[in-house]
Each structure stands twice: as C-alpha cells, then as structure tokens.
Design a protein that fits this description.
- With 156 residues, the protein is mainly beta.
- Helices cover 11% and strands 47% of the residues.
- The chain has a six-stranded mixed β-sheet, with no helix packed on it.
- The chain is globular and about 45 Å long.
- 28% of the residues are buried.
C-alpha cells in the first residue's frame, strides 16, 4: 500500500442489489457468518451477538438497518442459515468492534479522495444518516457507509 494521502482504500460490499463501501481502515476482518445468538428485546436490525476470539461482538444486519429489500433477507428466514456469499465484516469504531452482516464482499478499491462526493442532502432531517458520500459515475454509484451510524437505534 502506498502512503499517498490523496488515495483511500475502500471495502466494497453488496447489501441487497446496491453497492456500499466502508473505509478499509475500519475493517479488521471479513468472515463467513458464524452462529449468531439472538438478543431478547433488541432493535430489529440487531441480529444478536457472536463470540470472536474471546470477545462478544454485536451483529448488525445491514439489510435490515438500511431497510433494503433483498431476496437474501427472505432466504435467510426459513432455514436460519446464511447464504454462501454472506459475510460478517468486523469493523472497529473507536474502542468498540461490531460485526456487520452483508450479502457479499466484492472488492477492495483504491480511489482518489477527490472522487468522493458528499451524500446528497446529507445531515438534513428525513435523510439517511448512514450514508457519508457517493463515488462513481452514471448508473454505477457506490454509497459510502457510515458504520458508526448503523449502531444508533434512531435511524432518523
């Protein structure tokens, strides 16, 4: 990896039919989905917890959190088994770690910081606080995901 301050590395994931990106500096590891222990009275988007190398991590289902309609969400319900492409992306948020359940991880991409654009209508009431920005051209846009915002219970 080059020390070029104008470049940023992003982990691109699939959530439903959309592409999202997370700053690779936040991503610690990407794993097949382990057994998740449900938590009673947890918010709908919190799938439960997993034990990973002695530490208990909360698991956020990004599809539910972003309210993405996905056949993968429906496919997960009957058997309770994750699909083969699903992954748990373990992210660090300050001193905390969280697992983010996604439909798949597609690539690690290096992009110029200048190619990142602020999210349209960011920080306005009624807009998605989970999106920091946008990258890409034309119909192939990738939304930059704010992992920290996925943990807050009130989405708006």
């Amino acid at each position: 990896m080059s020390g070029d301050p104008d470049m940023i590395q992003l982990c691109v994931v699939r959530i439903g039919a959309e592409s999202y990106a997370v700053d690779l500096k936040r991503v610690e590891e990407i794993l097949p989905v382990p057994v998740v222990t449900p938590l009673p009275r947890a918010p709908r988007f919190l799938e439960g917890v997993v034990r990973l190398r002695g530490e208990v991590l909360p698991v956020v289902d990004a599809r539910k959190r972003l309210e993405v309609t996905s056949t993968a969400v429906q496919a997960l319900k009957p058997s309770g088994k994750p699909k083969r492409t699903e992954r748990l992306v373990v992210c660090r948020i300050g001193a905390r770690r969280v697992g983010v359940l996604v439909d798949g991880v597609t690539q690690v991409q290096r992009v110029l910081r200048s190619s990142l654009r602020p999210a349209p209508l960011a920080n306005r009431p009624g807009t998605a606080p989970h999106v920091l920005g946008v990258m890409g051209e034309g119909e192939h846009l990738t939304l930059l995901l704010d992992v920290k915002a996925l943990l807050t219970e009130d989405p708006w």
